[in-house]
Amino acid sequence: MSARSLGIFFFGTFLLFTSLASRASNPGSSYGCLVWDKGVYTTYQKTDYAPGNPYWGPFPYYTTAGTVYTITYSHGNYPQCNGCINPNYQFTSSGHCFVTIGGLPIQGALGTIHHMNSIDVPLDHFTWIILLTFSLLVFFKRKSLFSKMVLNER
Questions:
Q1: What is the mean pLDDT of residues 89-101?
Q2: What is the largest CA-CA distance in the chain?
Q3: Backbone angles phi, psi at 121, to 5 degrees
Q4: Whole-angstrom distance, CA of residue 62 vs CA of residue 47
Q5: pLDDT tens digit sequence for 16-64
Q6: Rounded CA gap, 127 and 17, in Å?
Q7: CB half-sphere exposure, 142, CA atoms < 13 A
Q8: What integer pLDDT is reported at residue 22 of this predicted model?
Q9: How far is residue 133's CA from residue 61's CA, in Å, rounded to a whole number?
Q10: In the chain, which residue ranges form alpha helices assigned H by DSSP?
Q11: What's this model's pTM, rounded to 2 decimal places?
Q12: What is the phi/psi pair of residue 12, to 5°?
C-alpha cells in the first residue's frame, strides 16, 4: 500500500468518525424537538439509540425542563405571543429525536427553530441609546485626537 493510499484511508476514517461523533452530540441551542400536539422542546438531555432498537440511531433526546414552545396556528405565520411557535413557518425538520415525557420517550422531529420574535426584551428598547452613546464617544475621541495632531504640528 502506498503512502498516498494510506493517507487517503486514514483521512477517510477520520471523516467517518468525526461525522458520527457530530451526529451523536448536542445539536445546539437553535435546535429543538417537535412533538405534534404537544410542543417544541429545547432542552437537550442526552444522545442515545431509539428505545427498544439498539441499531437505530443515535438520536438526541430532549427533556420537558426548560423552554417549551406551545404550538399555535391561530396567530398567523409568525405569532406575536411569548412561548408560541407555528411549526409550519418557524421550524425546519431535519431528522428524528425523542422527548422524555413522564419517563417515556416519545418520538419527534428534530429541527431548527427560526424567525422567533424577541418580545419584551428590555435591552431591545434601549439599543438606540447604546448606539448613540457609542457613536458620540467615537466622535469626540476622534475629534480630540485630531485637535492634538493639529496642535502638535504648529
A1: 90
A2: 85
A3: -95, 115
A4: 9
A5: 444 444 445 677 778 999 998 899 999 999 999 999 888 898 999 999 9
A6: 44
A7: 6
A8: 42
A9: 45
A10: 3-23, 87-90, 127-153
A11: 0.58
A12: -65, -40
